[in-house]
Amino acid sequence: MTPLSAVSPIDGRYHGKTADLSDYFSEAALIRYRILVEIKYFQALYDLGLPQLKHLSADKVEQLHKLYENFSEKDAQAIKDIEKTTNHDVKAVEYFIKTAFQEQGLEDSQEFVHFGLTSQDINNTAVPLSLRNAYKAVYRPAISDLIASMEALQEEWKNIPMLARTHGQPASPTLLGKEIAVFTSRLRTQLQQLQQVGLTVKFGGATGNMNAHYTAYPDFDWHEFADNFAESYLGLGRAYPTTQIEHYDNLAAFFHAMVRINTILIDFCRDIWTYISMEYFRQKTIAGEVGSSAMPHKVNPIDFENAEGNLGIANALLEHLAAKLPISRLQRDLTDSTVLRNVGVPFAHTMIAIKAIQKGMGKLLLNEAKLHSDLEANWMVIAEAIQNILRRENYPKPYEALKALTRGKAEVGEAEIKAFIKDLNVSDAIKEELLQLSPHTYTGVFK
Q1: Predicted pLDDT at 382
Q2: Measured distance CA(115)–CA(225) in Å, rounded
Q3: SS3 219
Q4: Which of 68, 117, 137, 155 could serve as 36's disulfide partner, Cβ 3.0–4.6 Å?
Q5: Would strands 169-175 and 200-201 be described as parallel, antiparallel, or unpaired?
Q6: How far is 98 from 90, CA to CA, in rounded Å?
Q7: Which of 197, 181, 180 lies closest to 131 in space, CA to CA?
């Protein structure tokens, strides 16, 4: 398969932007994580001191870790070839490992591969592991870099006055940097909540009670073993009690947290798109690029549009994952299995979007002249300031007086506002205070 023949744009058009996720969410990656869990489980059984494993040397057991450390595409294909016969992906992994045991002279220990386990003890540990590692290695650095880039713009524009628009209408002026800060603050809050979601694994045998383990070795505390295996060998918490599968509630919380972050980014993209359409921003041109096949003059905000579209796809998938995965008939049905194979897809669309936003922000050129002219054309927005100073001075019905002057009027400029002030029945000192007001300075304080 080439990028030109791929069905999904993730592996086609956008392959260069999503390739680093292949190490965590591809079929080969899932197989490797399954091998990792199986080998670490065997290591844990050896460390526990099972009588049948005591004869093994620690070095011999340690060598087994190379099965996942040196895992290759050839190994992945070998397992897929086994699966053609077994028609069971996890069993194919088990047989592959047993073959490796035989090649290393460990035939007498091979039946302790996958001992007492069901396939979901492997899948429900492999997937959270891959998700955690993808989050740490790919997603978190990318979203953190994006927030940092937004904060740099926030600092650069912190003193730039701008006409606000509530309900799309001219409103009390604001500061451009503060409006960017609204998004960075929201993103940091939601990222913190995402980081606090504890991913858990299911490890408990066919129906979650370690039945086979307690039957074979009743003198061991197998639940304590499972807790320790999850925490010490995998670095994740163990969900208990469970059915045959993990209940995925924390996974749903993780996906919902990603949805909230993506929704904030959609909001940001739409605002920046609108500011570009209002000419508050222009965009850097790139030699050779074409904005429109028909209109040579155009420089379209395609990066923010691309991001918005990909974030929407990501959220649709994340919301389905979060809604579907925690539901399973009785002790287990198979609907979670095929759904879990798509965990990497919303990650990929999210990464495409993050990179597009970064690219788009790098092309923004602030058009201060346009911001200034919009403020100058909307002197009526200081009506709020005037009426509140008049309230302070106990002036009769100041709101109503300003409403009569400004509401619904096509043209209320500096001259009309200042004429109104001069006609007010207030002291000269108050008039002077009011005359100092301007839409360019009536911006409040951004700290």
Answers
A1: 94
A2: 14
A3: coil
A4: 68
A5: unpaired
A6: 13
A7: 197
- Residues 115 and 290: their CA atoms lie apart, in Å, by 61
Q: Which of 40-54, 359-373, 399-413 has the lowest mean pLDDT?
A: 399-413
- As a whole number, mean pLDDT of residues 358-371 equals 97
Distance set, CA 13 to CA 9, 21, 66, 137, 293 (Å): 5, 15, 35, 23, 20
- Per-residue pLDDT band for 287 (boundaries 50, 70, 90) equals low
Q: Report strand pairing: 161-166 vs 169-175.
A: antiparallel
SS3 category, 238: strand
**Segment 134-151, tens digit of pLDDT:** 999 999 999 999 999 999
Q: Is the full-model pTM beyond 0.85? A: yes
Answer yes or no: do 361 and 242 share one domain: yes
Give catalytic residues, as residue numbers. Answer: 167, 292
Inside any domain, residue 11: no
Show the CA angle centred on residue 207, arms to residues 322 and 87, nearest 5°: 80
pLDDT > 70? residue 297 = no
Give the domain CATH number at 350: 1.20.200.10
Residue at 4 is within a domain: no
- Ramachandran sector of residue 238 (left: φ over 0; alpha: ψ -120 to 50; beta: rest): beta
| 137 three-state secondary structure | helix
Separation between Cα atoms, residue 269 and residue 308, nearest integer Å: 6
Structural domains counted in the chain: 3
Type and span of the H or E element at 282: strand 281-283
Nearest to 45 by CA among 121, 145, 100: 121
Q: How far is CA 419 from CA 15, 86, 423, in A?
A: 63, 88, 6
Alpha-carbon distance of 393 to 388, in angstroms, equals 9
In whole angstroms, give the CA distance from residue 360 to residue 307.
9
Q: How far is CA 302 from CA 305, 318, 348, in A?
A: 5, 24, 19
Same domain, 85 and 106: yes
**Model confidence pLDDT, tens digit, residues 371-418:** 999 999 999 999 999 999 999 999 999 888 888 887 877 778 999 999
Domain around 134:
120-367
125 and 182, same domain (yes or no): yes
One DSSP character per residue, 156-211 reads HTTT-EEEEEETTEEEEEEEHHHHHHHHHHHHHHHHHHHHT---EE--SSTTSS-H
- Residue 59 in any domain: the answer is yes
CATH number, domain of 402, equals 1.10.40.30
Are 394 and 335 found together in one domain?
no
